[in-house]
Structure formats: C-alpha cells, structure tokens
Amino acid sequence: MASRRTIIQDWMVAQKCHHLSDMQVQMARELGFKPDSLRKIDNHKQEPWKTPLPQHIENLYEKRFKREKPEVVKSLRQQLIEDEIKRKAKKKAKDARRAAKAAEESQCSPEVIEDSEDIVQLGLDSCGD
Q1: Which residue, 54, 105, 114, 124, has most beta carbons within 10 Å?
Q2: What angle do the packed helices 53-65 and 22-31 form, to 10 degrees?
Q3: For residues 9 and 67, what is the distance between their CA atoms, to the nearest angstrom?
Q4: Taking CA 26 as the corner, what is the angle to CA 4 and CA 19, rounded to the nearest 5 degrees?
C-alpha cells in the first residue's frame, strides 16, 4: 500500500497534467477517482461530444452529493503540510512517552531489586532453622 504522501504527490501530478483546480481535485477524490483513472475519462479534444474533465467532475459531484462544491476546500500542499505537522507531533509524543517510561524503569529497577533481595533474605531466614 502506498503512503499518503505518495498518493498526494500522484494527485499533484494529475492536477498539473489535467489543469484542475484544488476544488476539482478534492471533488474527484471524494468521488473515488484515482489519479491514473483521470487519463481515461479526459477529453483529448478528439471526442467533441464529451464534456471537458473539470466540468465532468463538477457535474458528477453535484449529481451525487447534491451540492455544487465541497464545504471545505484544502489544497494538496496544505494537506501535505498538515500531515507533516501531525507526524512530527505524534513522534514528539511517542518520544516523550518513551523517555518517561525509561525514567520510570530506571527509578523502579533498583528498588525492585532491593525489595526482591529483602524477600529472598526473609525467605532464607525463615527457612534456615
């Protein structure tokens, strides 16, 4: 499975090739199109009866979702930036958890060893009549 970053980069290439706006790309993604499938339905000016790809996407979106455009439009670059921020925050939180766990283990380990030695000594004292 491809990572989210590579999928968005594929969409950026398709956006440039097919001259689509951010809104039209988001509509196509919500409709379930793949970046490679746009090539098949694009009008290469050979079929005059076909509507141009941007208009075709808008018509399909309106037919399926009963609205002209998405409520919130995010550009692909903005999505990449947000994903990077989320990834960094997640990594920072994970590192903090690891550091806290390591500190907790380093503080607990000597006490646990001392307690276990006391238990062993108590066990030997009670058994060694």
Answers
A1: 54
A2: 50
A3: 27
A4: 105
Query: Which structure tokens are listed for 13?
Result: 């290439």
Query: Looking at the whole model, is its pTM more than 0.85?
Result: no
How far apart are alpha carbons 3 and 30 in whole angstroms?
18
pLDDT confidence of residue 47: 84
Query: Distance between CA 70 and CA 62 in Å, rounded?
Result: 10
Structure tokens at 123: 């066990």
Segment 59-105, tens digit of pLDDT: 999 999 999 999 999 999 999 999 999 999 999 999 999 999 999 88
Cα distance between residue 94 and residue 74, in whole Å: 28
Instruction: Burial-class residue 9 by CB neighbours within 10 Å (0-12, 13-18, 19+).
Output: middle
Name the one residue in this structure whose structure tokens are 């919500």.
30
Contacts of residue 45, Cβ cutoff 8 Å, sequence gap at least 6? none
